């Protein structure tokens, strides 16, 4: 780990250049250099403009870059080695953010007015320019966001996030910023605006590490420049701050490793403490859309895992037949889906408790609170007489047994959508017995 006190843009850029030079050329960083692959470019990137700032940034598409390459009579396929780009990892927060939507995308392709760009993203652009790179990926600007009357393309782009961060030359981590109004570096402009963090937190307490997606962005990025409230930090495969040394030989699925899906799917939503009572928190519409129902990344709440034990004690009861990243030839599904085969049994609600195979699960059923009509993350305050049926359907509830842990069967409560498609509604556990072993297996799609 190498560190430097937060300083001006010039100091940050110079120190980053030193780290990058060592990472890309030093024989001791062979692991870092082996990560350099010809990743497919993201659908869109921000062209940050000239280093002197004489032109505003603009949005460019992969198709436009491909056309430019063809005009230059080049036969090379465009990829992240031909067009290296940086990515920004940050918190949206509650601040009003500049976004690309259907109504402004054509203007964004011409230019993105500098005064409209939030301070956090401005500084990321300045760092990108300072490092001599032309392109930056920022989700709010490079993904067409949902707006009134327009669906955007988040559902299409979200499954590509792992490749976006994995293909980035460097990821800038705005660790200190709880929203986009914060400055990442000390500005040389007196009228630059934006807040600065003066709290001096520990790295693990920085705002960015409250985000569910941070793990994915941090694990998959080959290099990280971390701007914390106290120090400038560097992470790569050779030099790590808190990342465990590990060789990734697996498929990363919306916050889960495929190899351990049978364990990682068994997360539970932790409830808030309100007036000495535990109450759930309803997710926002944005949270509901950003990840599939089976992923912990669909919630901002605290989570706990049923498998907080040695994985040697956790035995899979499902078979992963396919995923959205390794698609079998006979699948026509879109979005982030899993094709699972396992023991599936119909369930019903009985006095707000889940009834499965004649067993009433009163204290071992954990419901996900995902009100489809919720516009705010509002606590449900009256849990004493909570009517679970108002959140779950009267019919179409099923239970999928996922893993056997220390003589208990753990699984997911599912809502049947259409045909063989299911969405997660919660989790449960019950004692493993002979009746469970006799349940027949079925194949489902979990979305």
Q: From the alpha-carbon coordinates, what is the Rg to the nearest angstrom? A: 24 Å
* Morphology: elongated
Distance between the termini: 39 Å
Beta-strand content = 25-35%
Structure description:
Residues 85-217 form the Heterokaryon incompatibility domain. It comes from Mollisia scopiformis. This is HET-domain-containing protein. By secondary structure, the chain is an alpha+beta fold. It has 2 domains: 3-249, no CATH class; 256-446, no CATH class. The protein is built from 12 helices and 24 strands. The chain has helices at residues 9-25, 30-34, 62-71, 105-110, 119-130, 139-142, 154-157, 161-167, 214-220, 261-264, 285-290, 434-437, and strands spanning 3-5, 44-47, 58-61, 85-89, 135-137, 170-173, 223-227, 231-236, 252-253, 256-257, 267-269, 272-274, 277-279, 303-305, 314-316, 318-323, 338-350, 353-356, 359-361, 365-367, 397-405, 408-416, 421-431, 441-446. The strands form 5 sheets. An 8-stranded mixed β-sheet has the order 1-8-7-6-4-5-2-3, sandwiched between helices. A hairpin with a 3-residue loop joins strand 7 (223-227) and strand 8 (231-236). The longest helix has 17 residues, at 9-25. The model is unreliable at 1-6, 188-192, 241-248, 272-280, 282-288 and 371-386 (pLDDT under 50).
List the helices and strands and how they pair.
Layout: E1 3-5, H1 9-25, H2 30-34, E2 44-47, E3 58-61, H3 62-71, E4 85-89, H4 105-110, H5 119-130, E5 135-137, H6 139-142, H7 154-157, H8 161-167, E6 170-173, H9 214-220, E7 223-227, E8 231-236, E9 252-253, E10 256-257, H10 261-264, E11 267-269, E12 272-274, E13 277-279, H11 285-290, E14 303-305, E15 314-316, E16 318-323, E17 338-350, E18 353-356, E19 359-361, E20 365-367, E21 397-405, E22 408-416, E23 421-431, H12 434-437, E24 441-446
Parallel strand pairs: 4-5, 4-6, 6-7, 23-24
Antiparallel strand pairs: 1-8, 2-3, 2-5, 7-8, 9-10, 11-14, 12-13, 15-21, 16-17, 17-18, 17-21, 17-24, 18-19, 20-23, 21-22, 22-23
Helix pairs in contact: 1-5, 8-9
């Amino acid at each position: 780990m190498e560190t430097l006190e937060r300083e001006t843009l010039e100091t940050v850029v110079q120190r980053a250049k030193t780290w990058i030079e060592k990472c890309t050329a030093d024989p001791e960083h062979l692991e870092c250099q082996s990560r350099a692959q010809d990743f497919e470019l993201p659908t869109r990137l921000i062209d940050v403009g000239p280093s002197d700032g004489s032109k505003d940034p603009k949005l460019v598409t992969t198709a436009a870059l491909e056309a430019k390459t063809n005009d230059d009579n080049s036969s090379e396929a465009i990829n992240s080695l031909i067009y290296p780009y940086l990515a920004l990892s940050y918190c949206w927060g509650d601040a009003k953010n500049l976004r690309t939507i259907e109504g402004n995308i054509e203007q964004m392709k011409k230019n993105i007015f500098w005064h409209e760009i939030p301070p956090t993203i401005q500084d990321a652009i300045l760092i990108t320019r300072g490092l001599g790179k032309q392109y930056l990926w920022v989700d709010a600007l490079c993904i067409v966001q949902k707006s009134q009357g327009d669906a955007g393309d988040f559902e299409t782009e979200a499954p590509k996030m792992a490749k976006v961060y994995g293909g980035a030359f460097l990821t800038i981590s705005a660790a200190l910023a709880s929203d986009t109004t914060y400055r990442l570096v000390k500005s040389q402009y007196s009228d630059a605006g934006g807040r600065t963090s003066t709290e001096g937190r520990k790295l693990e307490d920085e705002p960015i590490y409250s985000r569910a997606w941070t793990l994915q962005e941090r694990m998959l990025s080959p290099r990280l420049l971390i701007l914390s409230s106290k120090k400038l930090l560097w992470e790569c495969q050779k030099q790590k701050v808190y990342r465990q040394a590990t060789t990734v030989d697996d498929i990363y699925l919306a916050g889960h490793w495929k190899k351990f899906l049978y364990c990682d799917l068994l997360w539970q939503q932790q409830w808030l403490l309100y007036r000495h009572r535990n109450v759930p928190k309803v997710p926002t519409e944005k949270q509901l859309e950003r990840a599939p129902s089976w992923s912990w990344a669909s919630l901002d709440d605290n989570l706990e895992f049923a498998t907080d034990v040695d994985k040697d004690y956790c035995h899979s009861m499902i078979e992963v037949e396919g995923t959205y990243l390794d698609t079998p030839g006979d699948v026509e599904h879109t979005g982030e889906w899993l094709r699972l085969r396992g023991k599936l049994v119909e369930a019903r609600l009985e006095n707000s408790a889940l009834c499965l195979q004649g067993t009433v699960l009163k204290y071992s059923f954990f419901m996900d609170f995902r009100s489809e009509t919720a516009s705010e993350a509002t606590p449900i305050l009256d849990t004493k007489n909570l009517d679970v049926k108002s959140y779950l359907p009267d019919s179409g509830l099923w239970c999928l047994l996922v893993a056997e842990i220390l003589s208990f069967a753990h699984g997911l409560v599912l809502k049947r959508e259409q045909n063989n498609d299911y969405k997660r509604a919660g989790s449960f556990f019950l004692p493993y017995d002979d009746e469970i072993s006799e349940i027949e297996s079925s194949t489902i799609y979990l979305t």
